[in-house]
Amino acid sequence: MIVDPLSSLVAGTDRLLPANGISRRRFLQAGAAAGGGLLLSLSLPFANGEAEAADADAFAPNAFIRIGRDGKIVLTMPYVEMGQGTYTSIPMLIAEELEVDLKQVRLEHAPPNEKLYANPLLGVQATGNSNAIRGSWLPLRQAGATTRTMLVAAAAKRWNVDPASCRAQSGEVIHAPTGRKIKYGDLATDAARMPVPENVALKRPQDFRLIGTPAKRLDTPAKVNGTAIYGIDVRPPGVKFATLAQSPVFGGRVKSVDDGKAKVVKGVRQIVRLDDAVAVVADHMGAAKKGLAALVIEWDDGPYAKLNTNDVAAELEKATLNSGPVAQNVGDVDKAMASAVTKVEATYQVPFLAHAAMEPMNCTVHVRKDGCEIWVGSQAIARCQAAAAKISGLPLDKVVVHNHLIGGGFGRRLESDGVARAVQIAQHVDGPVKVVWTREEDIQHDMYRPYFYDRLSAGLDEKGKPVAWNHRFAGSSIIARYLPPAFNNGLDPDTTEGAIDLVYAFPNLHVEYLRVEPPGIPTAFWRSVGPSHNVFVTESFIDELAAAAKQDPVAYRRALLDKAPRAKAVLELAAEKAGWGQPLPERAGRGVALQFVFATYMAQVAEVEVAKDGAVRVRRVVCAVDCGTVVNPDTVRAQIQSAIVFGITAALHGEVTLKNGRVEQSNFHNYEMLRMNEAPAIEIYIVNSAEPPGGMGEAGTSAIVPAVTNAILAATGKRLRKPPVDTAALKQPA
Amino acid sequence: MAFSIKVNGKTHGVDVDGDTPLLWVLRDVLGMTGTKFGCGMALCGACTVHINGVATRSCITSVGSIGKSRITTIEAIGATAAGARIQKAWLDREVVQCGYCQSGQIMSASALLASKPHPTDADIDAAMSGNICRCGTYLRIREAIKQAAQSSGPGG
Hints:
The complex is a heterodimer of chains A (734) and B (156).
Chain A (H helix, E strand, L loop, with lengths): L2 E4 L21 E5 L5 E5 L20 E5 L5 E5 L8 H13 L6 E5 L22 H28 L6 E4 L2 E4 L4 E4 H8 L48 E7 L6 E6 L1 H4 L4 E6 L3 E6 L2 H10 L1 E5 L8 H11 L6 E5 L2 H6 L3 E9 L11 E7 L2 E6 L4 H12 L6 E5 L13 H10 L6 E4 L2 H6 L7 E9 L5 E10 L2 H5 L26 E7 L13 H20 L4 H6 L6 H14 L9 E10 L2 E11 L5 E11 L6 H21 L4 E2 L2 E2 L17 E6 L12 H18 L18
Parallel strand pairs in A: 5-6, 10-20, 18-19, 22-23, 26-29
Antiparallel strand pairs in A: 1-2, 2-3, 3-4, 4-5, 7-8, 8-9, 10-13, 11-14, 12-13, 15-23, 16-21, 17-18, 17-20, 21-22, 24-25, 25-26, 27-28
Helix pairs in contact in A: 1-2, 2-3, 8-9, 12-16, 15-16
Chain B lengths: L1 E6 L2 E6 L6 H8 L18 E4 L2 E4 L12 E3 L8 H12 L9 H14 L5 H8 L9 H13 L6
Parallel strand pairs in B: 1-5
Antiparallel strand pairs in B: 1-2, 3-4, 3-5
Helix pairs in contact in B: 2-3, 2-5, 3-4
């Protein structure tokens, strides 16, 4: 059913999309849909350059646009909705070029058990790194325009008129001279037989009807009346409910289980003992939890029984004493440092962080002799399928995965450990079983934002201007585990993002990264990924340089931005709107941060007040953003608001620590979240831009952390080099 | 033993231990999955329901303690005046992101509005700070409650 490979469609776009690895080869094909109508198959790029690793000559479609004979337009997209508004923004791109109303377009999760998704390239199907809109901006509009062109061609042929005399509007093709009209549905089957055009013209930005408008989200109504179905809500017939205890020390094993008391709990059906976990299967989660509490489990803690966070930090610190792979070098830092008038040195650390999505980890599995069915909310469904196939020993095409809404991803749902665990349990259970982790398991068996240790030095000239910038850091590389082909020569593009290619004009710069994997604690992507660490460090250190030069932090940065006009513009805008320089009460202060990550320029000014007891309150945040073309301004605002709250949570409260190999935090009383009464006022200013869209889901998180700590410096004179905020250090002396 | 509970105006018999949290009776026994599990310790508010109109954390409320009290869940809150106004305001203000916590947020906000038709910022802080939103929709929740309050009419 797939004909006419369209190889030239995206000619000329390589320059715009190099990071996404989209090949001009075979990006789009068109043909007849099963049951009539038109089907366009697309191959869209994915997170972290996974597409680059694919066989560039093979057409592996992962997105589909179908126009049925009934005129309904259904998009099947690999990206998953986890609150970021993708299910609204993606249809906007298609609807814009296809000339249909947004409400005519329906978006579906990528289908389960689709051979197309069972690509041996694991992880090809992923939503992450703020790239859904970045990656699909051109291809989806081109797909929409191609479809429109074919529908117009079909109508012109039927009327025997020149296609140029026809136009598409609101789901119909209109022949202007005669006023004749045909609906898309009536043309779809004919259109499938039209040649795929070699080139299509995209609409000019000034002609956009949808892009740039605050279109209402399509997924929301079901989320306010309890009808939306998340992974945790699925109820296949006969489903049992299970919860589990995993070895409290990573790498530990079950030594013995006394399940005598658990078995007699009303509603408990079965105890499943695995090598490193025990699960209780019951008629409902209440009984499963009660049964779990009644178990007496003895653990063999394994090799990490004595591991403490300080051991991890000490190892990273030690690693930074030796040189490592060079992530970026500009000029000659050693020479410049030797001639510097002032030298500044500092070390920084960032802690392990849990994701703590509101929907605890869960996965429902039905293992049968000849197949396995899975219900889950995942950012990377193909990885889930592969993990299940590996555990169950079934071939990939016997593993059916139903993807669902996600109650917060933040990177956690890019991993498949929860699926693997659920399959291990389900193999012992007759019928479907829903495995739900308690909040304690969710926090204590997360895969964490890595701990990093950073060592920086800089040299300033007689005017205080930086002449040398030297940065070396050590910590985990997620990419090295998650996507090995993208880890090369000891470096990867994520772990270094925000540490290299800084917006500032540094004549001499040297950045080294040492991959050091912590023992006994797994690491994973966490909202704003590499920049969550790097932007905190670089934007704190530039602030330290401004202080050493006795200059205003905004003016100091601004002087280094002559070659970065978009960065300068957002910095100036944020400073102006924040009232930078205006007096504030005692123990209140403003801090600024500036970044260019996820292809988006952003500046934030945080205003904090520090109580006498050291408690920090972020009162107000002003954010200026240039994220290129804005597809949906309300989604941009929502994502920035969200990311700022997420980042303040980390700055003020976020820290996962290990003691004797065990994660010490367990629930929201000791792994705290920002709450309504602590949420700051947030003002967002979007710069008008015609550049390609930048990523929006994460940028706000990395920028706010240094803005807050820089503001704390302004308020108290104390420089915090290791989040979260240490309130004891900020206590006002009596 | 078996219990009889009244949920959204309908009486259900459930055969579970009396110390079973209402949350799991609703979700797993009765299949009403709109009420969410977040923490199990009344720390996050995702499981909020109304018992006799009072916002209550169902994850620590045992089914045996409910007796003849009226339970209202997210599935039926739209049938109350305050609930309908809150739901509408939530949509108008595009509050929702991932949406997982929003059942609980809406239940807390509806109870607030029913008891205080014109809540102050301090009232909103007091009523809503027990509900965590990891997507950080707090600003819009506050705006939406204020919008819903405006349509409450005078008084209160």
